[in-house]
Target: Biliverdin-producing heme oxygenase
Amino acid sequence: MSLRSVLRAQTADCHAEVDMLFGTFDLSNRERYRTFLRAHARIVPAAENAIENAGILRLLPDWSERRRAPLLFADIRALGDQMPALLPPPALGCEAALWGALYVLEGSKLGGALLAKSVPDHLPSSYLAPQGSKGAMRLFMERLDASDVDDPAAAVAAARTVFDLFLKAGQLELEAVP
Model:
């Protein structure tokens, strides 16, 4: 069984929970959209930095083109807001954990592309808009499938941690909404 299949099967519950929570955000409403972006801003920069520090460039040389934190920062600034406090980054002590965290972040791009359709044209949406070189997702999936990690459980644990961080970030931002 490929690592992608293992990750998909063993994180399906987390994925569904994150989808359900973030599905409650009305992205056509400026304030709710801002709240959605702030939730992502609590985890995406920290997770991307952790992935970079764990050595992603040896696995995905096009990593710099995949980073979305700068796009997220730009959208939040365009809405006249400041970055929220970051949540602690996931611990990525091995290659398997790196793949697990990356699985969640890269997968969120697919969801983002679908969500971008809900954002009105007058709101900034570079973070959600599809980006990267053509075939970047396919390349990621091929590399994930070809990865020969010796500890798939570490990949699953890291992926579940990143999903949990997204949940926590979403809940924190929703609690702050009056």
